[in-house]
Amino acid sequence: MARLVFTPQSTVAATVTATKRWVPTLGIWGASAGAGALLLLSVTPLVRRELLEKVPVLGSYYQDKTPASDKPF
Length: 73
Known about the structure:
membrane, 56% helix, 3 helices, 0% strand
């Protein structure tokens, strides 16, 4: 019968193992949260003007082409 011998793992090795395990998951959740925040805040003029209009391909979609005479404020 084989004997199992457990050796203690160093703190650095345990941290590296945990980091390798959690980084992809946290990256996916972070990207999803960022996309959701941009979706919800895309109607805010500050976010639209300062962030979304400066995206190279999609910037023209978010530009406000409403004449000044038709704006209420």
